[in-house]
């Protein structure tokens, strides 16, 4: 009995078959990773988002349930968005070092 191992993730051939590289270039993703300004823009965006969440929670009153829900929503979006921007900046940094 032979087991066939399946590896998760995308291989380069799968990416080519799906046409993801051409779509990425069409949207300007590949050229953006080589732009030197992209790294600082992403880092600045992550910093702004990380500051926005706590600031919004501090400045908005909690008098009504809608205000509390808005605080939670903005805090969640700023944490997720800031984390995504920071992770993307690290990925762009790796791509730029390879160049």
Automatic annotation (TrEMBL):
Pfam families: DUF1118. Keywords: Membrane, Transmembrane, Transmembrane helix. The chain crosses the membrane at residues 41-60, 72-95. The keyword Transmembrane applies. InterPro entries: DUF1118 (IPR009500). This is Uncharacterized protein.
């Amino acid at each position: 009995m032979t087991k066939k191992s399946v590896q998760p993730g995308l291989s380069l051939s799968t990416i080519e078959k799906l046409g993801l590289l051409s779509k990425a270039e069409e949207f300007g993703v590949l050229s953006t990773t080589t732009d030197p300004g992209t790294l600082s823009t992403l880092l600045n965006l992550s910093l702004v988002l990380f500051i926005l969440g706590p600031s919004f929670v501090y400045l908005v009153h909690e008098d009504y349930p809608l205000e509390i829900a808005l605080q939670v929503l903005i805090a969640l979006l700023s944490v997720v968005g800031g984390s995504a921007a920071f992770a993307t900046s690290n990925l762009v940094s790796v791509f730029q070092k390879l160049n």
